[in-house]
Amino acid sequence: MVLKKSVSILGSTGSIGTNTIDLIHRNPNKFRTVALTGNSNIQLLAEQARELNPEFVAVANEANYQSLKDALADTDIEVGAGENAIIEAALRDAEWVMASIVGSAGLAPTLKAIERGATIGLANKESLVCAGELMMQAVATHKATLLPVDSEHNAIFQVLDRQNAKAVDKIILTASGGPFRTFSIEDMCKVSPKEAVAHPNWSMGAKISVDSASMMNKGLELIEAYHLFPVDESQIDILVHPQSVVHSMVSYIDGSVLAQMGTPDMRTPIAYALAWPERMIAPSAKLDLSEIAQLNFEEPDPVRFPALRLAREALKFGKSAPAVLNAANEESVGAFLKEKIGFCDITAIVEEVLSRFDHQEITHIDDILATDKKARICALQAIEKRSR
Ligand SMILES: NC(=O)C1=CN([C@@H]2O[C@H](COP(=O)(O)OP(=O)(O)OC[C@H]3O[C@@H](n4cnc5c(N)ncnc54)[C@H](OP(=O)(O)O)[C@@H]3O)[C@@H](O)[C@H]2O)C=CC1
Ligand SMILES: CC(=O)[C@@H](O)[C@H](O)COP(=O)(O)O
Ligand SMILES: [Mn+2]
Q1: ipTM of the predicted structure?
Q2: What gap in Å lies between CA 32 and CA 9, rounded to an integer?
Protein backbone atom coordinates (compact mmCIF):
# COMPACT_ATOMS: atom_id res chain seq x y z
CA MET A 1 0.00 0.00 0.00
CA VAL A 2 1.33 3.47 -0.93
CA LEU A 3 1.13 5.99 1.94
CA LYS A 4 -0.91 9.09 1.17
CA LYS A 5 0.87 12.46 1.44
CA SER A 6 -0.80 14.54 4.19
CA VAL A 7 -1.58 18.09 3.07
CA SER A 8 -3.01 21.30 4.50
CA ILE A 9 -4.21 24.24 2.43
CA LEU A 10 -3.99 27.72 3.92
CA GLY A 11 -6.33 29.81 1.76
CA SER A 12 -8.25 26.85 0.34
CA THR A 13 -11.17 28.99 -0.86
CA GLY A 14 -9.06 31.17 -3.19
CA SER A 15 -7.90 30.70 -6.75
CA ILE A 16 -4.72 28.79 -5.80
CA GLY A 17 -6.56 26.91 -3.06
CA THR A 18 -9.33 25.67 -5.37
CA ASN A 19 -6.80 24.67 -8.05
CA THR A 20 -4.91 22.69 -5.41
CA ILE A 21 -8.12 20.97 -4.34
CA ASP A 22 -8.91 20.17 -7.96
CA LEU A 23 -5.63 18.23 -8.17
CA ILE A 24 -6.29 16.49 -4.85
CA HIS A 25 -9.74 15.43 -6.07
CA ARG A 26 -8.24 13.92 -9.17
CA ASN A 27 -5.77 11.93 -7.07
CA PRO A 28 -7.74 10.54 -4.11
CA ASN A 29 -5.17 7.78 -3.58
CA LYS A 30 -2.23 10.15 -3.29
CA PHE A 31 -3.34 12.78 -0.74
CA ARG A 32 -5.03 13.05 2.65
CA THR A 33 -6.20 16.48 3.89
CA VAL A 34 -5.32 17.62 7.41
CA ALA A 35 -6.46 21.27 7.58
CA LEU A 36 -8.21 23.87 5.41
CA THR A 37 -8.56 27.61 5.97
CA GLY A 38 -10.60 30.48 4.54
CA ASN A 39 -11.75 33.96 5.46
CA SER A 40 -15.12 35.04 4.03
CA ASN A 41 -16.36 32.27 1.74
CA ILE A 42 -17.92 30.01 4.36
CA GLN A 43 -20.18 28.11 1.98
CA LEU A 44 -17.23 27.00 -0.15
CA LEU A 45 -15.05 26.26 2.89
CA ALA A 46 -17.78 24.05 4.35
CA GLU A 47 -18.27 22.26 1.01
CA GLN A 48 -14.53 21.64 0.73
CA ALA A 49 -14.45 20.30 4.29
CA ARG A 50 -17.33 17.91 3.61
CA GLU A 51 -15.60 16.61 0.51
CA LEU A 52 -12.08 16.25 1.90
CA ASN A 53 -12.92 15.46 5.53
CA PRO A 54 -9.94 17.23 7.18
CA GLU A 55 -9.25 17.11 10.93
CA PHE A 56 -9.51 20.89 11.27
CA VAL A 57 -11.03 23.85 9.43
CA ALA A 58 -10.31 27.47 10.34
CA VAL A 59 -11.77 30.78 9.29
CA ALA A 60 -9.75 33.97 9.79
CA ASN A 61 -12.75 36.25 10.24
CA GLU A 62 -14.13 35.45 13.70
CA ALA A 63 -17.56 36.79 12.73
CA ASN A 64 -17.90 33.75 10.45
CA TYR A 65 -17.25 31.17 13.18
CA GLN A 66 -20.85 30.31 13.98
CA SER A 67 -21.95 29.88 10.38
CA LEU A 68 -19.01 27.56 9.70
CA LYS A 69 -19.68 25.64 12.91
CA ASP A 70 -23.37 25.30 11.96
CA ALA A 71 -22.53 24.19 8.44
CA LEU A 72 -20.33 21.37 9.80
CA ALA A 73 -22.45 20.53 12.88
CA ASP A 74 -23.22 17.00 11.72
CA THR A 75 -19.52 16.14 11.12
CA ASP A 76 -16.66 15.48 13.54
CA ILE A 77 -14.45 18.13 11.89
CA GLU A 78 -12.98 20.57 14.43
CA VAL A 79 -13.70 24.23 13.68
CA GLY A 80 -11.68 27.29 14.72
CA ALA A 81 -11.75 31.03 14.03
CA GLY A 82 -9.38 34.00 14.15
CA GLU A 83 -5.70 34.49 13.43
CA ASN A 84 -4.69 31.93 16.06
CA ALA A 85 -6.88 29.30 14.45
CA ILE A 86 -5.12 29.88 11.11
CA ILE A 87 -1.81 29.40 12.94
CA GLU A 88 -3.19 26.22 14.48
CA ALA A 89 -4.07 24.96 11.01
CA ALA A 90 -0.47 25.61 9.91
CA LEU A 91 0.80 23.74 12.97
CA ARG A 92 -1.33 20.63 12.39
CA ASP A 93 0.87 17.75 11.37
CA ALA A 94 0.68 17.82 7.55
CA GLU A 95 3.84 16.90 5.62
CA TRP A 96 2.97 19.38 2.85
CA VAL A 97 1.37 22.82 3.25
CA MET A 98 0.03 25.05 0.50
CA ALA A 99 0.65 28.69 1.54
CA SER A 100 -2.02 30.43 -0.51
CA ILE A 101 -3.45 33.11 1.76
CA VAL A 102 -3.35 36.47 -0.02
CA GLY A 103 -1.17 39.25 1.38
CA SER A 104 0.96 39.67 4.48
CA ALA A 105 -1.78 37.87 6.47
CA GLY A 106 -0.08 34.73 5.15
CA LEU A 107 3.27 35.46 6.78
CA ALA A 108 2.75 34.25 10.37
CA PRO A 109 1.06 30.92 9.45
CA THR A 110 3.60 30.19 6.70
CA LEU A 111 6.44 30.81 9.15
CA LYS A 112 4.83 28.42 11.66
CA ALA A 113 4.65 25.67 9.04
CA ILE A 114 8.32 26.33 8.19
CA GLU A 115 9.29 26.18 11.88
CA ARG A 116 7.92 22.66 12.19
CA GLY A 117 10.00 21.56 9.19
CA ALA A 118 7.16 21.00 6.72
CA THR A 119 7.37 21.10 2.93
CA ILE A 120 5.74 24.34 1.81
CA GLY A 121 4.21 25.03 -1.59
CA LEU A 122 4.69 28.79 -1.56
CA ALA A 123 2.18 30.86 -3.54
CA ASN A 124 1.96 33.67 -0.95
CA LYS A 125 4.73 35.87 -2.41
CA GLU A 126 3.92 38.78 -0.07
CA SER A 127 5.35 36.84 2.90
CA LEU A 128 8.75 36.55 1.17
CA VAL A 129 8.62 40.19 0.09
CA CYS A 130 8.04 41.31 3.68
CA ALA A 131 10.27 38.86 5.49
CA GLY A 132 12.53 37.18 2.95
CA GLU A 133 15.66 37.01 5.13
CA LEU A 134 13.79 35.77 8.20
CA MET A 135 11.86 33.17 6.22
CA MET A 136 14.90 31.79 4.41
CA GLN A 137 16.83 31.63 7.71
CA ALA A 138 13.92 29.72 9.27
CA VAL A 139 13.86 27.29 6.32
CA ALA A 140 17.57 26.54 6.88
CA THR A 141 17.35 26.33 10.67
CA HIS A 142 14.31 24.05 10.72
CA LYS A 143 15.27 22.02 7.62
CA ALA A 144 11.99 22.87 5.95
CA THR A 145 11.55 22.64 2.19
CA LEU A 146 10.27 25.66 0.25
CA LEU A 147 8.86 24.87 -3.19
CA PRO A 148 7.94 27.95 -5.26
CA VAL A 149 4.43 27.76 -6.70
CA ASP A 150 4.39 31.23 -8.29
CA SER A 151 4.64 30.28 -11.98
CA GLU A 152 7.85 32.24 -12.72
CA HIS A 153 9.68 30.99 -9.63
CA ASN A 154 8.46 27.47 -10.18
CA ALA A 155 9.87 27.73 -13.72
CA ILE A 156 13.24 28.96 -12.41
CA PHE A 157 13.26 26.23 -9.76
CA GLN A 158 12.80 23.68 -12.54
CA VAL A 159 15.63 24.96 -14.76
CA LEU A 160 18.15 26.18 -12.20
CA ASP A 161 21.32 24.11 -12.09
CA ARG A 162 21.93 24.00 -8.35
CA GLN A 163 25.24 22.09 -8.76
CA ASN A 164 26.62 25.04 -10.76
CA ALA A 165 25.13 28.10 -9.08
CA LYS A 166 28.21 30.16 -10.05
CA ALA A 167 27.50 29.42 -13.71
CA VAL A 168 24.22 31.35 -13.56
CA ASP A 169 24.48 34.63 -15.43
CA LYS A 170 20.93 35.94 -15.18
CA ILE A 171 17.45 35.02 -14.09
CA ILE A 172 14.92 36.35 -16.60
CA LEU A 173 11.47 36.82 -15.09
CA THR A 174 8.82 36.98 -17.78
CA ALA A 175 5.85 39.35 -17.39
CA SER A 176 2.68 39.35 -19.45
CA GLY A 177 2.45 43.15 -19.19
CA GLY A 178 -1.13 42.73 -17.94
CA PRO A 179 -4.34 44.11 -19.49
CA PHE A 180 -2.85 47.63 -19.92
CA ARG A 181 0.41 46.66 -21.60
CA THR A 182 -0.27 48.92 -24.58
CA PHE A 183 -2.26 51.67 -22.80
CA SER A 184 -1.07 55.28 -22.57
CA ILE A 185 -0.64 56.68 -19.03
CA GLU A 186 -3.71 58.87 -19.57
CA ASP A 187 -5.90 55.88 -20.49
CA MET A 188 -4.45 53.74 -17.71
CA CYS A 189 -5.38 56.33 -15.08
CA LYS A 190 -9.05 56.04 -16.15
CA VAL A 191 -9.46 52.25 -15.92
CA SER A 192 -12.06 50.58 -13.69
CA PRO A 193 -11.50 47.70 -11.23
CA LYS A 194 -13.40 45.44 -13.66
CA GLU A 195 -10.92 46.22 -16.44
CA ALA A 196 -7.94 45.83 -14.10
CA VAL A 197 -8.90 42.34 -12.88
CA ALA A 198 -9.40 41.06 -16.44
CA HIS A 199 -5.97 39.48 -16.90
CA PRO A 200 -5.30 38.53 -20.54
CA ASN A 201 -3.93 35.04 -19.76
CA TRP A 202 -4.43 33.94 -16.16
CA SER A 203 -7.51 33.46 -14.01
CA MET A 204 -6.53 34.66 -10.51
CA GLY A 205 -7.78 36.40 -7.36
CA ALA A 206 -8.58 40.15 -7.49
CA LYS A 207 -5.52 41.43 -5.63
CA ILE A 208 -2.88 39.67 -7.73
CA SER A 209 -4.80 40.55 -10.90
CA VAL A 210 -4.58 44.27 -10.07
CA ASP A 211 -0.89 43.77 -9.22
CA SER A 212 -0.36 42.24 -12.67
CA ALA A 213 -2.11 45.22 -14.25
CA SER A 214 0.19 47.72 -12.49
CA MET A 215 3.15 45.34 -12.88
CA MET A 216 3.65 45.55 -9.11
CA ASN A 217 3.24 41.78 -9.34
CA LYS A 218 6.53 41.65 -11.24
CA GLY A 219 8.10 43.99 -8.70
CA LEU A 220 7.03 41.67 -5.88
CA GLU A 221 8.30 38.71 -7.92
CA LEU A 222 11.69 40.39 -8.34
CA ILE A 223 12.02 40.52 -4.54
CA GLU A 224 10.65 36.97 -4.25
CA ALA A 225 13.25 35.68 -6.75
CA TYR A 226 16.06 37.49 -4.93
CA HIS A 227 15.25 35.57 -1.74
CA LEU A 228 14.57 32.21 -3.33
CA PHE A 229 17.60 31.92 -5.61
CA PRO A 230 21.34 32.48 -5.10
CA VAL A 231 21.72 35.58 -7.28
CA ASP A 232 22.30 39.29 -6.79
CA GLU A 233 19.56 41.82 -7.51
CA SER A 234 21.48 43.00 -10.60
CA GLN A 235 21.26 39.46 -12.03
CA ILE A 236 17.46 39.49 -12.17
CA ASP A 237 15.97 40.91 -15.36
CA ILE A 238 12.32 41.42 -16.28
CA LEU A 239 11.17 40.78 -19.82
CA VAL A 240 7.65 41.34 -21.14
CA HIS A 241 6.24 38.28 -22.91
CA PRO A 242 2.54 38.84 -23.69
CA GLN A 243 1.62 35.17 -24.33
CA SER A 244 2.63 33.85 -20.84
CA VAL A 245 3.96 30.63 -22.36
CA VAL A 246 7.62 30.96 -21.34
CA HIS A 247 7.17 31.14 -17.59
CA SER A 248 10.75 32.31 -16.94
CA MET A 249 14.34 31.54 -17.93
CA VAL A 250 17.83 31.12 -16.56
CA SER A 251 20.80 32.14 -18.68
CA TYR A 252 24.22 30.62 -18.00
CA ILE A 253 27.78 31.90 -18.51
CA ASP A 254 28.29 29.53 -21.46
CA GLY A 255 25.43 31.17 -23.39
CA SER A 256 22.81 28.50 -22.70
CA VAL A 257 19.35 29.79 -21.81
CA LEU A 258 16.98 27.29 -20.17
CA ALA A 259 13.27 28.08 -20.12
CA GLN A 260 10.23 26.32 -18.69
CA MET A 261 7.13 26.58 -20.86
CA GLY A 262 3.50 25.55 -20.63
CA THR A 263 -0.02 26.82 -21.12
CA PRO A 264 -1.01 29.41 -18.48
CA ASP A 265 -2.68 27.11 -15.94
CA MET A 266 -1.57 27.19 -12.29
CA ARG A 267 -2.35 23.50 -11.92
CA THR A 268 1.00 22.78 -13.62
CA PRO A 269 3.24 24.50 -11.02
CA ILE A 270 0.93 23.39 -8.19
CA ALA A 271 1.15 19.76 -9.41
CA TYR A 272 4.93 20.11 -9.61
CA ALA A 273 5.09 21.25 -5.98
CA LEU A 274 2.51 18.70 -4.78
CA ALA A 275 4.33 15.75 -6.35
CA TRP A 276 7.93 16.94 -5.83
CA PRO A 277 10.45 15.30 -6.04
CA GLU A 278 8.35 13.18 -8.40
CA ARG A 279 5.90 14.43 -11.04
CA MET A 280 2.18 13.84 -11.43
CA ILE A 281 -0.40 14.27 -14.19
CA ALA A 282 -2.06 17.70 -14.32
CA PRO A 283 -5.17 18.46 -16.40
CA SER A 284 -3.67 21.66 -17.89
CA ALA A 285 -4.10 21.99 -21.66
CA LYS A 286 -1.08 20.71 -23.57
CA LEU A 287 1.16 23.33 -25.12
CA ASP A 288 0.85 23.43 -28.90
CA LEU A 289 3.57 25.77 -30.18
CA SER A 290 2.51 25.45 -33.80
CA GLU A 291 -0.95 26.72 -32.86
CA ILE A 292 0.53 29.62 -30.87
CA ALA A 293 2.92 30.24 -33.81
CA GLN A 294 4.59 33.32 -32.31
CA LEU A 295 6.23 34.13 -29.01
CA ASN A 296 6.95 37.83 -28.48
CA PHE A 297 9.30 39.60 -26.10
CA GLU A 298 9.82 43.29 -25.30
CA GLU A 299 11.47 45.47 -22.67
CA PRO A 300 9.13 46.70 -19.89
CA ASP A 301 8.31 50.43 -19.87
CA PRO A 302 9.46 51.91 -16.53
CA VAL A 303 7.57 55.17 -17.12
CA ARG A 304 4.10 53.67 -17.56
CA PHE A 305 4.86 50.99 -14.95
CA PRO A 306 6.68 52.75 -12.07
CA ALA A 307 6.03 49.76 -9.78
CA LEU A 308 9.05 48.02 -11.31
CA ARG A 309 11.37 50.85 -10.24
CA LEU A 310 9.77 51.13 -6.78
CA ALA A 311 10.20 47.43 -6.06
CA ARG A 312 13.82 47.40 -7.25
CA GLU A 313 14.60 50.48 -5.14
CA ALA A 314 12.96 48.89 -2.09
CA LEU A 315 14.95 45.68 -2.60
CA LYS A 316 18.22 47.63 -2.93
CA PHE A 317 17.42 49.82 0.08
CA GLY A 318 16.63 46.79 2.24
CA LYS A 319 15.66 47.12 5.92
CA SER A 320 11.87 47.57 6.22
CA ALA A 321 11.44 49.03 2.70
CA PRO A 322 10.09 45.87 0.98
CA ALA A 323 7.55 45.34 3.81
CA VAL A 324 6.45 48.98 3.49
CA LEU A 325 6.15 48.65 -0.29
CA ASN A 326 3.98 45.58 0.19
CA ALA A 327 1.72 47.03 2.90
CA ALA A 328 1.16 50.31 1.02
CA ASN A 329 0.40 48.35 -2.14
CA GLU A 330 -2.08 46.03 -0.36
CA GLU A 331 -3.98 49.00 1.10
CA SER A 332 -3.94 50.92 -2.20
CA VAL A 333 -5.12 47.93 -4.24
CA GLY A 334 -7.94 47.40 -1.72
CA ALA A 335 -8.95 51.08 -2.02
CA PHE A 336 -8.81 50.92 -5.84
CA LEU A 337 -11.03 47.82 -5.86
CA LYS A 338 -13.53 49.77 -3.71
CA GLU A 339 -13.30 52.64 -6.21
CA LYS A 340 -11.95 55.05 -3.57
CA ILE A 341 -8.88 55.91 -5.64
CA GLY A 342 -7.86 55.66 -9.28
CA PHE A 343 -5.56 53.05 -10.80
CA CYS A 344 -2.53 55.37 -11.09
CA ASP A 345 -2.96 56.38 -7.42
CA ILE A 346 -1.86 52.87 -6.42
CA THR A 347 1.81 53.30 -7.30
CA ALA A 348 1.77 57.03 -6.43
CA ILE A 349 0.68 56.13 -2.88
CA VAL A 350 3.27 53.36 -2.61
CA GLU A 351 5.96 55.84 -3.65
CA GLU A 352 4.71 58.46 -1.18
CA VAL A 353 4.60 56.01 1.75
CA LEU A 354 8.05 54.61 0.91
CA SER A 355 9.57 58.08 0.83
CA ARG A 356 7.90 59.25 4.07
CA PHE A 357 8.78 56.13 6.06
CA ASP A 358 11.62 55.98 8.57
CA HIS A 359 12.99 52.56 7.51
CA GLN A 360 14.30 50.35 10.30
CA GLU A 361 16.42 47.20 10.46
CA ILE A 362 14.40 43.96 10.64
CA THR A 363 15.57 41.28 13.04
CA HIS A 364 12.36 39.59 14.17
CA ILE A 365 8.93 38.83 12.74
CA ASP A 366 7.48 41.32 15.25
CA ASP A 367 9.47 44.07 13.46
CA ILE A 368 7.73 43.08 10.23
CA LEU A 369 4.28 43.00 11.81
CA ALA A 370 4.86 46.45 13.38
CA THR A 371 6.16 47.84 10.07
CA ASP A 372 3.20 46.37 8.20
CA LYS A 373 0.76 48.02 10.61
CA LYS A 374 2.49 51.42 10.53
CA ALA A 375 2.82 51.44 6.74
CA ARG A 376 -0.89 50.63 6.37
CA ILE A 377 -1.81 53.61 8.59
CA CYS A 378 0.45 55.82 6.50
CA ALA A 379 -1.11 54.45 3.28
CA LEU A 380 -4.65 54.98 4.59
CA GLN A 381 -3.83 58.65 5.22
CA ALA A 382 -2.53 58.99 1.66
CA ILE A 383 -5.63 57.18 0.34
CA GLU A 384 -7.89 59.54 2.29
CA LYS A 385 -6.18 62.56 0.70
CA ARG A 386 -6.78 61.16 -2.77
CA SER A 387 -10.26 59.71 -2.14
CA ARG A 388 -12.81 60.48 -4.80
N1 LIG B 1 -4.05 33.07 -8.34
C2 LIG B 1 -2.93 32.76 -8.92
O3 LIG B 1 -2.93 32.18 -10.01
C4 LIG B 1 -1.62 33.06 -8.28
C5 LIG B 1 -1.56 33.52 -6.98
N6 LIG B 1 -0.35 33.74 -6.36
C7 LIG B 1 -0.32 34.20 -4.99
O8 LIG B 1 -1.07 33.30 -4.20
C9 LIG B 1 -1.73 33.98 -3.14
C10 LIG B 1 -3.22 33.70 -3.25
O11 LIG B 1 -3.70 34.25 -4.44
P12 LIG B 1 -5.16 33.94 -4.97
O13 LIG B 1 -5.47 32.51 -4.74
O14 LIG B 1 -5.23 34.50 -6.32
O15 LIG B 1 -6.04 34.85 -4.00
P16 LIG B 1 -7.60 34.74 -3.68
O17 LIG B 1 -8.04 36.10 -3.32
O18 LIG B 1 -8.30 34.03 -4.75
O19 LIG B 1 -7.61 33.81 -2.37
C20 LIG B 1 -7.06 34.26 -1.17
C21 LIG B 1 -7.26 33.25 -0.06
O22 LIG B 1 -6.84 33.85 1.18
C23 LIG B 1 -7.96 33.88 2.10
N24 LIG B 1 -7.82 35.10 2.90
C25 LIG B 1 -8.09 36.38 2.52
N26 LIG B 1 -7.79 37.24 3.51
C27 LIG B 1 -7.35 36.48 4.54
C28 LIG B 1 -6.89 36.79 5.85
N29 LIG B 1 -6.84 38.05 6.32
N30 LIG B 1 -6.48 35.78 6.65
C31 LIG B 1 -6.53 34.49 6.22
N32 LIG B 1 -6.96 34.15 4.98
C33 LIG B 1 -7.34 35.14 4.16
C34 LIG B 1 -9.19 33.87 1.23
O35 LIG B 1 -10.33 33.42 1.94
P36 LIG B 1 -11.85 33.74 1.40
O37 LIG B 1 -11.83 33.48 -0.08
O38 LIG B 1 -12.67 32.73 2.14
O39 LIG B 1 -12.17 35.13 1.75
C40 LIG B 1 -8.73 32.87 0.16
O41 LIG B 1 -8.78 31.56 0.66
C42 LIG B 1 -1.36 35.46 -3.31
O43 LIG B 1 -0.27 35.75 -2.50
C44 LIG B 1 -0.96 35.56 -4.78
O45 LIG B 1 -0.04 36.60 -5.02
C46 LIG B 1 0.83 33.51 -7.02
C47 LIG B 1 0.83 33.09 -8.32
C48 LIG B 1 -0.39 32.85 -9.05
C1 LIG C 1 0.27 32.95 -12.60
C2 LIG C 1 1.29 33.78 -11.95
O3 LIG C 1 2.32 33.33 -11.54
C4 LIG C 1 1.04 35.23 -11.86
O5 LIG C 1 1.93 35.83 -10.96
C6 LIG C 1 1.23 35.74 -13.24
O7 LIG C 1 2.59 35.69 -13.51
C8 LIG C 1 0.69 37.08 -13.42
O9 LIG C 1 1.05 37.54 -14.66
P10 LIG C 1 1.90 38.84 -14.92
O11 LIG C 1 3.11 38.38 -15.65
O12 LIG C 1 0.96 39.65 -15.75
O13 LIG C 1 2.22 39.50 -13.62
MN1 LIG D 1 3.71 34.90 -11.02
Answers
A1: 0.99
A2: 11
